[in-house]
What we know:
This protein is about 65% helix and about 0% strand. It is mainly alpha-helical. A two-stranded antiparallel ribbon has the order 1-2. Helix 7 runs parallel beside helix 9 (about 210-230), helix 7 (about 160-175) runs parallel beside helix 11 (about 285-310) and helix 8 packs antiparallel against helix 11.
Amino acid sequence: MASYDRPRAGGSPRPLKTGDTWWYAAVAGEAAGSFSTRVRTRTRRGCLGAVLLLTVVYAGLVLTATGRRWGDAAMTGRRADGAATTVLRDHPSLAGFTTLSLVLGCVLLLAVGLIRKRYALTGLAAGSVVTALALTGLLQRYAPRPRLADAGGLASTGFPSAQTTLALGIAFGLVLVVPYRLRAAAVGAATLWAVGVGAYTVAAGQHRPGDVIAAALVVLAVFCGALALLARRGQVRPGARRGPALPGLLVTVPLVLIAAGGLGVGLWLLGDTLTLPSAAPYDPADLRLAHRCGQALAAGVVAAAGLVLLGLLRRVDVEGAPTPYRLGGPFVEAAGVPGDGELVGPFTEDLDHEIS
């Protein structure tokens, strides 16, 4: 925790002293000690909210018969969806391209961080991705789920989706390594790519929509926890209030449209797809509707997760504490030239220059 960000025993920030970052009050409009606390509080709430939503998704789509039936219908409905079937048949190389893009995404994340010499933040980003993948593997292996007597020929998929976890983890890792002014554009574009990866896994029958939704919530919880740790250590500072908005808008606007449209359409169709009969045969039209509903919900949740993270970090720079301010000039010279290790604030102790 930085010196300017350490609260007193009573919980309130200590008074500012010479050499502290006095510009928190003068420029950023923040009292010393309050900014990191506010960032930590909202990221911790984001982590807790993601965990609670993950619990609801797990209980509703895995532990209940209705949720499992809906997931199976969304998975088998891909065969009845002519558009998805045509795309996968005409472009068989999509599977290899998806795997290659995940590898290149990992390389890009590490390369950006190392080139910019943000070694600690790069390690934190890589550690967060590995943590999310580890939690995904643990949930796939040990999360209780009912044993089905007849799987109906469906492949046993993992809850959550490892591919979506890796793709969205790479997108969120860019928050820690890219410059602040490019964060919205980089993270938004990478989140759009993660939406495509999740949609492909559902269309190819590798995962159910609930697996993709759960993966997005796992990644959001892990990265919110990592950001809360950064804020607790005082490694955040206020970001610029104004900057180039056009590059960010070019990707955040489509992300907002996907999130709003996906969640809206998915929830609207969900009521019709939950009324499937308890046993086969099913109407192909109902299966196709369930597949499109699942695709919409999965895309909407992944896009919304990216927007939530960007919203939590609005005007928050994670590249470390600001450099202490040093002032020179005749007033400082009159008060005595400071030593190399001594920090100087905007005012001096020389009473002859005191402003009445």
